[in-house]
Amino acid sequence: MVPRRLRSLLLVAASIAFLASAAVAQPVRAQAAAQAAPQAGQAKATVAAQAAAGTAALTASQRGVLYGIARDTWTFYRDDVDPVTHLPLDNLGPGATRGTYTSASNIGVYLWAVVAARDLGLIGRPQARSLVTATLTTVRGLKRFDGLLYQWYDTTTGDVIRNPGDIDCATEPNPVPDNCYFLSAVDNGWYASGLVVVRQALPELRGLVDGLMAPMNFGLFYDAGPQTACNTNANLPGNPPTGQMFGGFYVGQGPAGYHNGALYSDPRIAMYVGMGLHQMPGDVWWRSWRTLPPQQCPTDPDFSWQGQWPVAGYWQTYTDPQSGRQFNVWEGHYSYQGTSLTFVPTWAGGMFEGLMANLVVPETTWGPRSFGLNDLRWAQVQVKYATQVLNYPVWGLSPSSTPDDSGNYAGYGVEGLTFPAGQGLSQCRGCATEDTVTPHASFLALGLLPAEAYQNIQALRTRYPGSYTPDGGFYDAVNPVTGAVGHRRLVLDQSMIMAALDDALTGGALQHYFANDPVSWAAKLYLSDETMSIH
What does the alpha-carbon distance between residue 239 and residue 368 come to, in Å, rounded to a whole number? Predict the structure, then answer.
């Protein structure tokens, strides 16, 4: 039995679970787009220059090794994509096991992988165009709502299913709050990111992509309830953090009953897209939390239970570049004990929570005083803790398959569990364990710590030779102490590897595609507008 995959968005929801108001966001005016437009050429040049510098940090020999890994990893997709529906399967293995289900995020990152294979010369442009066209033609016929994909689809039939191995949702005609009716904000964000990449990498498919993006309504995920000067609105049921993004939406019922309040986590991709499409206002950026904030009002939640307390930082007033409204933002940060290293934590300590967005959104370029700097700091925290505190010979903790052949999936991350209470490294303590390393985490760090990441990739292959084969590349997980390997590969994680290798070997191609797309204006504007309290 293949269990339902845990998502970091659900970990976020586990703690910040406020009851949702029934209000559905109205699309915001398309103002301020022109504000970013004159900077598009400059952004393109900046992204290219910084990516080229990162590429130059790798020697010719190292680039050759990484290219070989890309070639081997690409062979995974030969068996992973359904030959009839052309939808990517969620996973392959152990053995002959096939996860014949998929999600919005799986489809989006598969599109990354196809483009990466084309960029790297593993396939030609005609084949890339054919593969993408086949998949998106099927997607065009899938059941959607407001252009958004449901949580799970059967890859054999294309039908919506409640959960992997569960019922066909056609047998559940009346709306209920389960996955038959659930639209995930983060998963649809990754799906949209794949469409954006295709639109720029294969402009001849723009008509097909535009037809899929035109009906998308990310405004469904925005909590447009009345805001107050407090962190939350005690005048509404559940005291919700209005102005933030809901974790999802139940069709025919309304928003999910929780918010993605932790800004430095993977759901922020949906904010980049939602703002870029003019469907979420800048409020969503300022009202979301860097660290869980101290109380501004007696009715605000008490977050003293979080990983570090008290939290260092200060209140900073920002004027939104679109609306001109002012927002009081808690610019908090955590510190790595015994050092001067400061950072904004993820929710559960996972590498992809922090770094996955940077594969396509050039955060390191556009946010040198915000998430661009924090991406580097988070990679450094991961390396330091795993090698110096856990004393592992390799690093890279992130949600992945378990390091066995059970076919399970679990949350792994750097939470600082060996540190005293109040000195943790993630916002949630106990939401993840620290006993498994996943290869995709090393690749996520290639653009930030190229030498360290390359060395770690090679150490994984050398120390755990069973973790890699030429017909698919790395398996998904390894126990760094026992050497046990989970002989399973996920399309999500393999596609992160392909995307990271594309960026590393081509001077940031995927980031370049996103930067060139009209949807990118908001990410650039808000990343560059903020100065976090980290250094």
Answer: 34
Residue 52 pLDDT: 53
Q: 477 forms bridges with which residues in the sheet?
A: 486
- 19: its two tokens: 């009851």
What is the CA 311 to chain-centroid distance, rounded?
25
Quick: pLDDT tens for 219-230.
999 999 999 999
What the block records as the tokens of 45 is: 């040049």
Distance CA 464, CA 125 (A): 35
Residue among 444, 449, 460, 454 nearest 498 (CA)? 444
Query: DSSP class of residue 260?
Result: -
Instruction: Region of 44 please: left (phi>0), alpha (psi -120 to 50) or beta.
Output: alpha
Alpha-carbon span 20 to 254, nearest angstrom: 8
Distance of alpha carbon 378 from alpha carbon 351, whole angstroms: 8
User: Residue 18: is its pLDDT beyond 80?
Assistant: no
Cα–Cα distance for residue pair 433/248, rounded to 1 Å: 26
Phi, psi of 376, rounded to the nearest 5 degrees:
-65, -45
**Residues 6+ positions from 190 with CB-CB distance below 8 Å:** 104, 105, 108, 109, 269
Check residue 418 and give left, alpha or beta (phi > 0: left; psi -120 to 50: alpha): alpha
pLDDT tens across 39-62, in order? 344 444 544 455 455 566 899 999
d(CA 117, CA 121): 6
Cβ atoms 199, 209 nearer than 8 A: yes
Q: Buried (b) or exposed (e) across 174-207, using 16+ Cβ within 10 A?
A: eeeeebbbbbbbbbbbbbbbbbbbbbbbbeebee
Closest CA to 338 of 385, 400, 268: 385
Q: Are 203 and 189 in contact (CB under 8 A)?
A: no
User: CA 413, CA 417: separation in Å to the nearest integer?
Assistant: 10
3-class SS of residue 59: coil
Cis peptide before 310 (omega within 30 of 0): yes
**Residue carrying the six token digits 């499409």:** 277
* Superfamily in which the 8-529 domain is placed by CATH: Glycoside hydrolase 144 (GH144) (1.50.10.140)
- Classify the phi-psi angles of 158: left when phi > 0, otherwise alpha if psi is within -120 to 50, otherwise beta: left
Cross-strand partners of 316: 329
Strand order across the beta sheet in which 342-343 lies: 312-319, 326-335, 342-343
The set of residues, in sequence order, having a beta carbon less than 8 Å from that of 314 and lying 6+ positions away, is 330, 331, 533
Residue type, position 105, single letter: S
Mean pLDDT (whole number) for 432-446: 98
Q: Find out whether 52 and 452 touch, Cβ atoms under 8 Å.
A: no
Question: Could you report the per-residue pLDDT of 340-398, keeping only the tens digit for each?
Answer: 999 999 999 999 999 999 999 999 999 999 999 999 999 999 999 999 999 999 999 99
